[in-house]
Amino acid sequence: MTTSRHTSRRSRRTPAPPAVEAAPLVRIVRPAEVCRLLGLTRQALWLMRRRGDFPPGLKLSPGGSIGWREDVLREWLASRPAA
């Protein structure tokens, strides 16, 4: 009498991990859109960054592309005195 050592592949599978709630997506705003939304020129935006008057951007690529988290920009705008 021979016994089979083979088991069903299904019985060896590990159960799937429990579902994890995904973090909310964060929108990245590129410099052209920042300028359009705030009414700034690119030169004014870079000058504000250099002086420390604007939140630091996120480096998006090794080539120098940058962007800002939309929530960070909203917080920055809310913290500025009304004109």
Can you tell me about this structure?
Strands 1-3-2 form a 3-stranded antiparallel beta sheet. Helix content is about 40%, strand content about 10%. The chain starts with 8 loop residues before the first helix and ends with a helix. It has about 80 residues and is α+β, with helices and mostly antiparallel strands. It has helices spanning about 10, 30-40, 40-50, 70-80; strands spanning about 30, 60, 65-70. A hairpin with a 6-residue loop joins strand 2 (about 60) and strand 3. It has a domain at about 25-80: Arc Repressor Mutant, subunit A (Orthogonal Bundle), CATH 1.10.10. It is elongated and about 75 Å long.
Alpha-beta classification: alpha+beta
Strand order of the largest sheet: 1-3-2
The description of the largest β-sheet is: 3 strands, antiparallel
CATH architecture of the domain at 26-79: Orthogonal Bundle
What is CATH's topology name of the domain at 26-79?
Arc Repressor Mutant, subunit A
Helix content: 25-40%
Order of helices and strands: HEHHEEH
Number of helices: 4
Radius of gyration: 25 Å
- Poorly predicted runs: none
Ends distance: 91 Å
Beta content: 5-15%
Mean pLDDT reading? 86
Write the layout of secondary structure elements.
Layout: H1 9-12, E1 28-29, H2 31-38, H3 42-51, E2 58-59, E3 66-69, H4 70-79
Antiparallel strand pairs: 1-3, 2-3
